[in-house]
Amino acid sequence: MPRVSQTPRGEETSYDRERLGQWLAGQARAEGISRRRLLALLAAASAATALPPVPRAAAATSTTIVKPLPDEWFTVRGTNAETKWESLHGTGYHTPVDHFFVRNHTSTPVIEGAGWRLKVWGSGLRGAPGIDQAVEFGLDDLRALPPVTHSAFVECAGNGRNFYTTQQGQTVSGTAWTLGAVGVARWRGVRLSQVLRAAGLTRDAMDVMPRGLDDEYVTGGVSLGHVRRPLPLAKALDDVILAYEMNGEPLPYDHGHPVRVLVPSWAGIASIKWVGDIEVSAEPLYSPWNTDFYRLFGPAYPDGGSPPLTRQTIKSAFELPSGAAFTAGGTYHLRGRSWSGAGGIRDVQVSTDGGATWRPAGRLDVPRRDGWVRWSVPWRPSAPGPAELLARATDTAGRTQPDQAVYNTQGYLFDAVVRHPVTVV
Ligand SMILES: Nc1nc2c(c(=O)[nH]1)N[C@H]1C(S)=C(S)[C@@H](COP(=O)(O)O)O[C@H]1N2
Ligand SMILES: [Mo]
């Protein structure tokens, strides 16, 4: 019997339990993953040891990114490029496209808009078309639909991962980002809901899985296929955009040209770049990106890991390099930004004495969901020597950055207050 299986936000756990139940009952499909593998992953007693190692990207001097990556703006980490926070000083609310971090599993494909087609298919559509009978949309078809514009961050779930190690002494796998795997842009495109409805969405639909046109991701000699991650229908119909513009320009190659998915407030992996097809399924879908990756594994989490990650956590960053130098007796305006996946930022406290005393930073922006707040605080360092700057944000949902982030093996969702070292001379 047809059934609407939408899960409101905030109920991801029950959503996950339901889809796992369906999967075990043989109703779900998990292309590229064996049932045994999934069972081991989801039900085994020691999830952390069952995890395959996530390769650390080798240090690379050449990259697979199209745009220039000047040293002043980026730290290159394997196939990825992290924005240097000090390079955002003096830029506006939106991260300039040429400063925006890039997270590529493989490399940026150069795909022209003219020949590009989006294929929408699956058992959740009228007539249950296979990929060969997919409903197709060209870029002009999307542009003919009413446009929407939304400012939102894209942030890698592993942003801040390096601090699990440097600040908490823990070993985690994955790219050793500091805080620069985040940017806020003004995205323009069409609502995914509109495209899904035009494609013949039915009440049976449950999961929506966009897939990228970049190369298949190969790790440990095994191809995991094209980058893809299912979204629950409720989120897909809520605020997800198929974006073709970023900060008023056509989407750049590195950020998904001609069209990317933009999933506001969720982990960056949800925002599939270079989208080529979208499967709409009446059964729960699995990919490595909602099973092996982008779940929390570790002593604080259930066997088999947490439900798939959804919203991002809360963070703050100073627009300063690590080890920035200040002159004793000088007056400075320390600037930074704070953001959260759970709401706007309503308060930021700053300490310039390693956490002994705190004072409120002046907010330069109103709290905005899916965005960040820029802030500023005056500082007059007195004594020469090393110092630590700290910023602690609170969001409109009442979350405050803790002193310690809860460990997970892959170092996702770091939310603790970061101790930013500087020197007073
Ligand atoms: N097709 C495809 N989409 C992708 C990725 C990818 O490698 N391939 N990386 C994801 C991850 S992990 C992140 S954090 C964001 C990064 O978006 P950006 O490179 O535009 O900053 O894209 C996501 N979408
Ligand atoms: Mo990411």
Kindly list the characteristics that best describe this protein.
binds molybdenum atom, binds the ligand Nc1nc2c(c(=O)[nH]1)N[C@H]1C(S)=C(S)[C@@H](COP(=O)(O)O)O[C@H]1N2, disordered N terminus, five-stranded antiparallel β-sheet, alpha+beta, globular, 425 residues, five-stranded mixed β-sheet, 11% helix, 23 strands
What would you note in describing this structure?
This protein is an alpha+beta fold and 425 residues long. The chain contains seven helices and 23 strands. A hairpin with a 2-residue loop joins strand 1 (74-77) and strand 2. The longest helix is centred in the N-terminal third of the chain and has 13 residues, at 12-24. Mean pLDDT is 89; it is low at 1-17 and 34-62. The structure holds the ligand Nc1nc2c(c(=O)[nH]1)N[C@H]1C(S)=C(S)[C@@H](COP(=O)(O)O)O[C@H]1N2 and molybdenum atom. Molybdenum atom binds at residues 103, 156-158, 268-269.
